[in-house]
Design goal:
By secondary structure, this protein is an all-alpha fold. It is built from six helices and no strands. The chain has one domain (31-46, 54-192): Four Helix Bundle (Hemerythrin (Met), subunit A), CATH 1.20.120.80. It starts with a helix and ends with a helix.
Length: 193
C-alpha cells in the first residue's frame, strides 16, 4: 500500500506547476491587463477634440522584424538546450540577447524620429500614448535582455553543469510573450492612427 502512495505523490508532483512558472504567468497576466488598459485609454481618448496623430517611424517596422527573428533564436536556444548542444545553446542565447538590444536601439531611433518630426508629450495626442506604451514595452524587453544575459553567463560557467530546464523555459516563455505583445501593439498603432 505504501509504494502506491509514493507513486501517487510523485504523479501529483509532476502535475504541479513550478513556482517560477506560476509567478511568470501571474506577471504575464498583470502585464496584459496593464497594456489592455493603456490601449483602451488610447481608443477612448482619441475621440476627444484636439487629438493629434503621428506617422509610424520606419525604425518600428525594422524593430518588428528584429523581434520576430529573436523569437526564432530563443526557440532554437531552447531546442539546443534540450538536446544538450551547449555551444549552439550559448550562440542562440547570445544572438537573442543581441537582437533584443538591437530592438531597443531601433525603438530609440524611432522615438528620435518622432521627436524630430514634432511628436512630443505636449498637447493631447497619440504621441503621449505611443511614448508610454512603447516605452513600457521596451522596459519589459530590457528586463528580458537582463534575464538572457544571466542565462548566457550561467551557460558559459564551466564549473556548474546544470541541465535544469525551468530557467530556460521561463525566460523563453517571457521572451515569446514580449515578442507577441510588440506585434499586438504595433498592429494596434497601425490600425488606430
Amino acid at each position: 500500500m505504501i509504494p502506491s502512495l509514493e507513486f501517487k505523490s510523485v504523479v501529483d508532483q509532476n502535475k504541479k506547476i513550478h513556482p517560477h512558472k506560476f509567478i511568470l504567468w501571474v506577471a504575464i497576466g498583470s502585464i496584459i491587463m496593464m497594456f489592455a488598459g493603456l490601449t483602451s485609454a488610447y481608443i477612448v481618448k482619441r475621440e476627444q477634440p484636439g487629438w493629434t496623430t503621428y506617422t509610424t517611424p520606419l525604425a518600428f517596422y525594422y524593430s518588428t522584424a528584429v523581434i520576430l527573428i529573436s523569437s526564432l533564436t530563443i526557440f532554437l536556444a531552447g531546442k539546443s538546450f534540450t538536446e544538450r548542444r551547449m555551444i549552439r545553446y550559448r550562440k542562440m542565447l547570445a544572438a537573442t540577447l543581441i537582437l533584443g538590444l538591437v530592438f531597443i536601439l531601433l525603438q530609440w531611433l524611432g522615438f528620435r524620429h518622432l521627436w524630430a518630426t514634432g511628436t512630443t508629450f505636449h498637447g493631447s495626442g497619440a504621441g503621449q500614448f505611443l511614448y508610454i506604451i512603447a516605452g513600457l514595452h521596451a522596459l519589459h524587453v530590457f528586463g528580458g535582455v537582463i534575464a538572457l544575459f544571466v542565462l548566457w553567463l550561467r551557460a558559459r560557467n564551466t564549473r556548474i553543469r546544470s541541465y535544469n530546464m525551468v530557467p530556460v523555459d521561463v525566460v523563453s516563455t517571457y521572451w515569446h510573450f514580449v515578442d507577441l505583445l510588440w506585434i499586438y501593439l504595433f498592429i494596434f498603432f497601425l490600425m488606430v492612427q
